[in-house]
Amino acid sequence: MDKSPDAFRTISEAAAELDLPQHVLRFWETRFSQIKPLKRGGGRRYYRPDDLLLLKGIRHLLYDKGFTIKGVQKVLKAQGIRQVIAIGQTGAIEPVTVADHDSALASVPFGAGEASGLSKKDTNKLSSLLKDLLEMKRKLDQARQ
Fold first, then answer.
1. Is the pLDDT assigned to residue 6 strictly greater than 70?
2. pTM score, two decimals?
3. SS3 of 39, please?
4. What's the distance, CA 26 to chain centroid?
5. Which of 48, 61, 71, 85 could cysteine-pair with 53, CB 3.0–4.6 Å?
6. Which of the 8 DSSP states describes residue 1?
7. Where exactly are the structural domains of the chain?
8. Contact status, residue 37 vs residue 48, Cβ threshold 8 Å
9. CA gap 117, 58 in Å, rounded
10. What's the half-sphere exposure (Cβ side, CA atoms, 13 Å) at 43?
11. Cβ atoms within 10 Å, residue 108
């Protein structure tokens, strides 16, 4: 019998759904403070539906997009949990990137259109501005060396 999409998942169920070993989920809890499964007696973990969506977003960024843990931490800090959940749900929101995922703001994705409350035109303007700022930062970093 399948569980409801709103049901909590044990760590073994979450790991199976994400196609990851359980120890990876435990490790991610130490690296991403936003992952907070409910813990019951004996330390048994129960992942809420939003926890799973966040984990899917993190998994997508790490495994599919090649981000480092530090890069994903920056995305979470700059854009928040909802943005990473959206990435995990659709996989379609492409992050704005420069050569180095760990450079400041290089791995910050913008939401597309209505999902972020911005028009497509405004989203494109922001993406363009971010690229310009990152290029200026790169030049400043080179000049400082």
1. yes
2. 0.62
3. strand
4. 17
5. 85
6. -
7. 9-144
8. yes
9. 23
10. 1
11. 20
